[in-house]
Design goal:
single chain; alpha+beta; PH-domain like; Annexin V, domain 1; 4-stranded antiparallel beta sheet; 3-stranded antiparallel beta sheet; extended
Amino acid sequence: MIKKQDQQGPVITPGELVNLKFCSVKESVDAEYPFCFEINSVHHKKPLIFQTHSEIELKEWISALKNVMENLLSNNSASFAMNMYNSYGSNAQEDETRHGKIKEIIKKNFCADCGEAEPSWISLNLAVLVCIDCSGVHRKLGIFIVIFVFWKSSCLIIGPIISKIRSLKLDSLNEHIINLFYNYGTDKVNQIWESQVTGYINLKPKPGSSSFEKEKWIRMKYIDRIFLKNPGI
């Protein structure tokens, strides 16, 4: 099967997964190429377009994917009530504590990049709390791309995502992550990321700053790392 990387659908980056439980599949009637099907996901604005090698293979892929999706939904529905019944008593207090910590994290912190009050988004790998506007900039940072050239050959090395954004309110986060942001808020984390910020403090964006100003600051901070005491870390 061939993934078509054209304007009809987004390109799947290395390491990206699509949860088929929240998808639908059908033959792509408007595709530029023959024998194509599309997967519509709640996580992508445009359908993911795939091309097979024949009509038979196209039908086989669509049938197989539909079966997987139906089984996922069926298994999830069947186990949902039982899981809720078994876990409610033991987890109710834990959930209350967890939600209480999340509310406190949001209430007592501010966006690490623009200072907006009560940020509800986090970067898992950068360990910073950010507002919804700055979280959008973080998502645009993409991945590390390095071109390694040796003699007459070269290779493209694609590294990890620069900033893995999650929502404190919407995503399911484990206890260790919640405790990390509960114990280390914006003040403490920015002491690291902005330890050498003195000469650039006039460039730091405010909540009402433009997207351009926020993106410029965020790229200097996390990609160029010019505010770090040791930029090599």
